[in-house]
């Protein structure tokens, strides 16, 4: 199997393939070129919204930036398997191969994403188990598509447009992600199932 690559390395490869400069990518994605430089050169992992915008600008699905290989048939994740390897950590510049990512650190900021369909080819949904720590500093984001969240543990807050929602364990929320939003733990640790749909 080929060695695992982070999103920055995949973006660099795609830009070379399409002869696309960083400035052009920034213009097409609506992102700051400095953020793209950090992703490419420092291995920085932003929230999913910038990654979605980059994938759209490059004409690929989000999974292309995150996947190692693709499975055409069904992908099954057995109980306990998802928690065995963090896929990526938002806000971190230290995102090596999933198998060597550090264990979750209590009190650390950033969201720890465990992919549930990482190897499924040509998918339009991105399901994750996400471990969250309390972090109200992250900015709101928006992108095409829809999101579904089910709270497995703890309590989260969802700021959606001008509204605020408290979602407790066992609750769920489904919303259009084009509306500016942010999701964070409402004090203490929380774990959620998040499914992100992005149009083809």
Task: Please give a quick description of this structure.
This protein has 200 residues and is an alpha+beta fold.
Which spans of ≥5 residues are poorly predicted at pLDDT below 50? 96-103
In the CATH hierarchy, the third-tier topology of the largest domain is known as Jelly Rolls
Query: What's the number of extended β-strand segments?
Result: 9
Rg, please? 16 Å
Helix content: 10-25%
Give the total of domains. Answer: 2
CATH homologous superfamily identity of the largest domain: Jelly Rolls
Structural classification: alpha+beta
Order of helices and strands: HHHHHEEEEEEEEE
Describe the main β-sheet briefly: 6 strands, antiparallel
Kindly provide the name of the CATH class of the largest domain.
Mainly Beta
Q: Between the first and last Cα atoms, what is the distance in angstroms?
A: 28 Å
**Helical run tally:** 5
CATH architecture label of the largest domain: Sandwich
Mean pLDDT: 81
Strand content: 25-35%
Shape: globular
Widest beta sheet: strand line-up: 1-2-3-9-4-7
Structure description:
By secondary structure, the protein is α+β, with helices and mostly antiparallel strands. It folds into two domains: 7-66, lambda repressor-like DNA-binding domains (434 Repressor (Amino-terminal Domain), Orthogonal Bundle), CATH 1.10.260; 82-197, Jelly Rolls. The protein contains five helices and nine strands. The protein has helices at 7-18, 22-29, 33-42, 48-58, 62-66, and strands at residues 88-89, 112-115, 125-132, 146-153, 155-160, 163-168, 172-176, 181-185, 190-197. Helix 1 (7-18) packs across helix 3 (33-42). Mean pLDDT is 81; it is low at 96-103.
